[in-house]
Amino acid sequence: MTYEEALQYFAHIEMMGSHLGLDRMAELLRRLGNPQASLRFVHVAGTNGKGSTAALLDACLRQAGYRVGLYTSPHLVRYNERFQIQGEPISNEALTAATERVKAAADTMEDAPTQFELLTCVAFCCFQAAGCDIVVLEVGLGGRFDATNAIDAPEAAVIASISLDHTAILGDTLDKIAFEKAGIVKPGGRLVLYPWQAEGIVEQLRGICEERGAELILPDTRYQVLEESLAGTVFQAGEETLRTPFLGEHQVRNAITARTALEVLRRRGWRIPDGAIREGFAKAFLPARMEVLATAPLCLLDGG
Q1: What is the mean pLDDT of residues 151-165?
Q2: Which of 18, 119, 168, 260 is deepest in the core (most CB within 10 A)?
Q3: Residue 253 has what pLDDT?
């Protein structure tokens, strides 16, 4: 298989549509030897902010010296962008090799996997082959039946801001959508929840965590924005003063949520110095999210 053939394969599968559910994913992973079982994860869901939160976590963990995989969707220009290792998209050769491996397993299945299921398996294969210490795994859609939810309990689950999205699939109320997002909460696991939610959402997820014997961790909502400019935002949370290149107060809240998730990882034995968090926050990058391309004249790029 060539790189061009791999791209043609994904384009063909995309025309076949998508179908929620984890049975196909579980079967495909079994045929691949369960590559995800050798990996450790931070699983990130939410309507808004999950991309920023994932980028911050990835940057901080890399600054702490870990070999980090980052899986996000969709891509802007190339499929390779979805699979990053140490902050860089994987090579054409790595994508081709993983796609060939996944296609060989998928071709033997009666119930054909969807494009996103195939891509998620490609991610697991790539991260396994690269020997990643930890993977920041962004949910594609919802959570409960998303292909990424085929993993066992992660080191931490994170749910960012929840609002109405994909209502035809996830439900037409916040309660229904929150329930779907909460599908990433595993029995005995740990959930870091963005606390600035619509009324009733925190209590709903608290109840779900109690039912599943999972720990709910809510970030401290107290913070102060110290400086805002096109270069980013400086804020104080507790005793820390942190800078993020992302613009807007909502990004401060995403950063505080990511900071709390890093504290949960510390409790799990991950060595993440304060300096790594400061550097990671300052160096995090997320393309096409109010990205400043030029200042004279001012030119912003935003995926919205």
Answers
A1: 96
A2: 119
A3: 98
Cα gap 52→58, rounded to integer Å: 10
Phi, psi of 288 (to 5 degrees): 65, 30
Alpha-carbon distance of 40 to 21, in angstroms, equals 22
Q: Which residue, chain included where needed, has tokens 């298989």?
A: 1
Gap between the Cα atoms of 221 and 249, Å rounded: 12
Q: Are 46 and 163 in contact (CB under 8 A)?
A: no
Handedness of CA 42, 170, 115, 46 (dihedral sign): negative
What Å distances lie between residue 80 and 6, 48, 51, 213, 241, CA to CA? 11, 23, 16, 37, 34
Cα–Cα distances (Å) from 294 to 234, 281, 302, in that order, read 21, 22, 13
Find tokens 């962008």 and name the residue. 81
- Across the chain, what does the average pLDDT equal? 96
Is the per-residue pLDDT at 16 higher than 80?
no
3-state secondary structure 199-252: CCHHHHHHHHHHHHCCEEECCCCCCEEEEEECCEEEEEECCEEEEECCCCHHHH
